């Protein structure tokens, strides 16, 4: 039997001595994914040593689940103080900013000893950060399947104006009641599907980078993602219609993403270039004081755009002369100006990443070109094995009502093109845009819409 042919509940508390050479462990102590799981909440609080709970929700999730969760805790003799997230002026919903986090910390009642988050990804990310400094027990009760990272040890937040991933504790327990989650608004269900579908691209890029850069890669962890991205694809239609069993398949996948990242010690199993579209759209929205789209929806569309670009890229034959001209033409001053124009307040952070990594260093790029050219067949094989045809994904998205293009949620083809051109710059991860640069292929040559 393969090591990871389990649902998330079965891998809790297990140590895996893995073929990748690592011993995989996760600090998550309990995962319950089923209809009626919320009945377990008081038990889980006590199991973790909690007796007075600081509960965080938002206006919608309070009605959908937190009100009931509070009643269940109080019936079991556990004090429960609820704080609802605040929405900053100019936004439609609460955002994970320093201000929102500060508001929660200042509301934390003295003497309370456990945190329960009831809601979507923003609630979870903020609660993880609230529970981290005192290492308080933290239980997450998702109200929707809108994103992965339920059980990860990082929080996706807006920090100094930049969409950042901040290290924090994992939830100690996850109580996912599929009866509650399947009643979430359809758009949130679609977002969960989009975020799982992203794993076609993330795993492909993880393998490509392992081949080109010798980066650590674990096939067992990748296999977990393959199993659940397929389950997400197959269950998408039923899940989008709120079928609890299909929603459970999506939730199991979203839970496992957090485990996969903890096991691998990096975000490779979860995210690649498709996620960077989302981060960049979020950053632009922040800069322009616009409301951004749900993470999972942005990522779903980012996946579709990335698949189209991979289809273009795979037909191009590497030419060293062309690549060398392109690589040597890189103009640091021009790049810096462009970064300042695009990123505004967060440009200094972006420039510091390049100063540290030197990804545009011509000699390093040419070394990688030679490795890519020598391994072209293997890279194409990885794309064959990991990616699905863009048309197939588009047909699925059309059928379930998931957006298929940036214009479907207030972005544009131009904003997508600009985002793709900057995907190389926001992290030090080797992704499609970096591969294209090393091959001397410009972002325009990969435009899927022209
Ligand atoms: Zn491994
Ligand atoms: Zn995601």
Structural write-up:
The chain is α/β, with parallel strands linked by helices and 450 residues long. It folds into 2 domains: 8-184, Rossmann fold, CATH 3.40.50; 268-446, no CATH class. Helix content is 54%, strand content 11%. The protein is built from 20 helices and 10 strands. It has helices spanning 8-11, 41-47, 59-75, 98-107, 121-131, 178-181, 186-197, 199-213, 219-240, 244-264, 273-287, 295-313, 320-328, 332-343, 347-357, 362-374, 376-386, 390-400, 413-422, 432-438, and strands at residues 16-17, 23-24, 30-34, 52-57, 79-84, 114-119, 138-142, 154-159, 162-167, 173-177. β8 and β9 (162-167) form a beta hairpin. α7 (186-197) packs across α10 (244-264) and α11 (273-287) crosses α19 (413-422). It binds zinc ion (ZN) (2 copies). One zinc ion (ZN) binds at residues 18, 20, 22, 24, 218, 220-221.
Topology diagram in text:
Elements: H1 8-11, E1 16-17, E2 23-24, E3 30-34, H2 41-47, E4 52-57, H3 59-75, E5 79-84, H4 98-107, E6 114-119, H5 121-131, E7 138-142, E8 154-159, E9 162-167, E10 173-177, H6 178-181, H7 186-197, H8 199-213, H9 219-240, H10 244-264, H11 273-287, H12 295-313, H13 320-328, H14 332-343, H15 347-357, H16 362-374, H17 376-386, H18 390-400, H19 413-422, H20 432-438
Parallel strand pairs: 3-10, 4-5, 4-6, 6-7, 7-10
Antiparallel strand pairs: 1-2, 8-9
Bound molecules: zinc ion (ZN) (2 copies).
């Amino acid at each position: 039997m393969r090591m990871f042919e389990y649902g998330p509940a079965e891998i809790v508390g297990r140590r895996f001595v893995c073929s990748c050479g690592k011993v995989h462990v996760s600090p998550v102590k309990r995962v319950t994914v089923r209809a009626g799981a919320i009945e377990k909440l008081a038990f889980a609080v006590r199991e973790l040593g909690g007796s007075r709970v600081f509960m965080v929700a938002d206006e919608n999730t309070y009605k959908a689940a937190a009100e009931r969760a509070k009643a269940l805790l109080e019936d079991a003799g556990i004090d429960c103080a609820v704080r609802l997230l605040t929405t900053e002026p100019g936004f439609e919903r609460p955002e994970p900013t320093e201000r929102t986090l500060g508001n929660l910390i200042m509301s934390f009642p003295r003497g309370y000893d456990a945190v329960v988050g009831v809601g979507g990804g923003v609630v979870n990310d903020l609660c993880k950060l609230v529970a981290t400094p005192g290492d308080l027990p933290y239980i997450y009760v998702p109200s929707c399947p809108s994103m992965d990272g339920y059980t990860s040890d990082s929080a996706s937040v807006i920090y100094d104006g930049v969409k950042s991933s901040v290290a924090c504790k994992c939830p100690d327990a996850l109580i996912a009641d599929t009866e509650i989650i399947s009643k979430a608004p359809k758009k949130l269900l679609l977002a969960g599907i989009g975020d799982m579908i992203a794993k076609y691209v993330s795993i492909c890029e993880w393998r490509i980078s392992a081949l080109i850069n010798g980066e650590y890669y674990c096939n067992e962890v990748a296999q977990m993602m393959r199993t659940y991205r397929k389950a997400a694809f197959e269950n998408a239609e039923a899940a989008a219609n709120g079928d609890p069993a299909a929603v459970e398949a999506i939730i199991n996948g979203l839970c496992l993403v957090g485990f996969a990242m903890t096991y691998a010690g990096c975000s490779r199993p979860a995210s690649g270039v498709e996620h960077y579209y989302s981060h960049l759209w979020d950053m632009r929205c922040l800069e322009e004081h616009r409301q951004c789209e749900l993470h999972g929806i942005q990522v779903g569309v980012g996946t579709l755009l990335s698949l189209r670009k991979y289809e273009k890229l795979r037909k191009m034959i590497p030419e060293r002369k062309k690549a060398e001209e392109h690589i040597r033409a890189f103009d640091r001053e021009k790049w810096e100006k462009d970064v300042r124009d695009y990123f505004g307040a967060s440009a200094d952070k972006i420039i510091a990443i390049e100063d540290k990594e030197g990804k545009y260093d011509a000699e390093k790029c040419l070394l990688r070109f030679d490795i890519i050219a020598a391994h072209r067949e293997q890279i194409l094989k990885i794309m064959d094995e990991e990616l699905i045809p863009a048309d197939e994904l588009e047909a699925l998205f059309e059928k379930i009502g998931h957006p298929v293009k940036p214009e479907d949620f207030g972005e544009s083809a131009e904003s997508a093109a600009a985002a793709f051109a900057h995907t190389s710059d926001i992290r030090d991860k080797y992704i499609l845009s970096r591969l294209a640069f090393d091959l001397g292929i410009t972002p325009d040559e990969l435009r899927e819409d022209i």
